[in-house]
Specification:
- One of its GO terms (molecular function) is iron-sulfur cluster binding.
- It is a single chain.
- This protein is an alpha+beta fold.
- 43% of the residues lie in helices and 19% in strands.
- It starts with 5 loop residues before the first helix and ends with a helix.
Length: 145
């Protein structure tokens, strides 16, 4: 990535902070949703556990191995979905997917740190890295509906 302006530098710092200090890393003991996914082209893998009660994501944790993009995205995603309904989490995932594909997306939704991953859309080979945890979350939540 080219980090020529202060915003790019800030985004890079946010991504590296989530990579070096991941939020919600670990496994839930009382999960009712458990998903393993991997990206065979690069070796990234994620193990996502979530506790869903009454249509709401009460907690989420992840473990895995991979590049800074995939692991920081998993950290950001678990932070973003906690406390959300299944529908809200799936809507957030669609917004993220649109952002990764360079499509217009609903920017009225506060993405928080997730916005730091916006630049990944310029690197098609890295989009799968950024979306791996999100795809795992979607798969897990669809099993709850």
């Amino acid at each position: 990535m080219s980090f020529n302006n202060p915003l790019d530098t800030l985004y890079r710092q946010v991504i590296m902070d989530h990579y070096k200090n991941p939020r919600n890393r670990g496994v839930l003991d009382d999960e009712n949703v458990e998903i393993n996914m991997n990206n065979p082209t690069c070796g990234d893998r994620v193990h996502l556990t979530m506790k869903v009660e009454d249509g709401k994501i009460v907690d989420a944790k992840f473990e895995g191995e991979g590049c800074s993009i995939s692991m920081s995205s998993a950290s950001m995603m678990t932070q973003a979905i906690k406390g959300k309904t299944i529908e809200e989490a799936l809507m957030l995932s669609q917004i993220f997917s649109d952002m990764m594909q360079g499509k217009e997306y609903d920017d009225s939704v506060d993405l928080g740190d997730i916005e730091a991953l916006q630049g990944v859309s310029k690197f098609p080979a890295r989009i799968k890295c950024a979306t791996l945890a999100w795809k795992a979350m979607e798969k897990g939540l669809h099993s709850q509906q």
